[in-house]
């Protein structure tokens, strides 16, 4: 049934542009937008596809955050490589204006036969016309996947929310998320296992370079302990859906392993849980250019 669900969404990418990119308030429209994006990349090329779904605020990690329009200079040629990806994990805010997708991707430059595999994260938001636009895209590399992904696409449990549009209140709500990230970061320094036990969702996902997704906070903690990985993060930016149930943060990370510390970028997807606490649904680390 899940496989049929995914194939049904793939059909949507062959419909008209506006339908393929318009939010209907449900996660299926978000999956359709991602699949439209992927199909456009195959048909028109990588640069044109990113410009098609981006706006002036879209950020890409190349490897550090850069505006998409600046990175894909319109005078530059299209990347001749082949980039394939497909979502396996996605959620949409109850406000229908914000969501994220994540899944496996592969890239072949067409210059050699080596294919690069990994995981991506796309954060989406709608513009004033209700059309999905890419807010942020980041990717990490791992070996060729050995397992088929489990599909998890979810609508909110409730679509009721208080519509707050005052600029000051919106800023305060973003500061609350950034404060949560700072508290998580401080707890990481004091007790890393406690930090993940406290702030990670039960089925939270860690996307760490060189490894397929680690799902579940117990498995995440065991992975970090087994690999003797120490994490220190420095939050910088937060953004939150109007529905106030989903958010993301990003910043820098210092990862210590085998006595060697390297700089990374991180992005975290947060979800408001019962009791109004915020937990991390997904965390991705990517190498940083220092």
Write the layout of secondary structure elements.
Blueprint (H helix, E strand, L loop, with lengths): L1 H11 L4 H5 L5 H18 L1 H8 L5 E3 L3 E3 H4 L10 E11 L5 E11 L6 E12 L5 E10 L10 E3 L12 H24 L1 H8 E8 L6 E2 L1 H10 L2 E12 L5 E12 L2 E13 L5 E10 L3
Parallel strand pairs: 1-6, 3-7, 8-13
Antiparallel strand pairs: 1-2, 3-4, 4-5, 5-6, 8-9, 10-11, 11-12, 12-13
Helix pairs in contact: 1-3, 3-4, 6-7, 7-8
Q: Can you tell me about this structure?
A:
This protein has 290 residues and is of the alpha+beta class. It has two domains: 2-154, Roll (Nuclear Transport Factor 2, Chain: A), CATH 3.10.450.50; 167-287, Nuclear Transport Factor 2, Chain: A, CATH 3.10.450. 30% of the residues lie in helices and 38% in strands. It is built from eight helices and 13 strands. The chain has helices at 2-12, 17-21, 27-44, 46-53, 68-71, 167-190, 192-199, 217-226; strands spanning 59-61, 65-67, 82-92, 98-108, 115-126, 132-141, 152-154, 200-207, 214-215, 229-240, 246-257, 260-272, 278-287. The strands form two sheets. A seven-stranded mixed beta sheet has the order 2-1-6-5-4-3-7. The chain has a six-stranded mixed beta sheet with strand order 9-8-13-12-11-10, with helices on one face. Helix 1 packs across helix 3 (27-44), helix 3 packs antiparallel against helix 4 and helix 7 (192-199) packs antiparallel against helix 8 (217-226). It is globular and about 50 Å long.
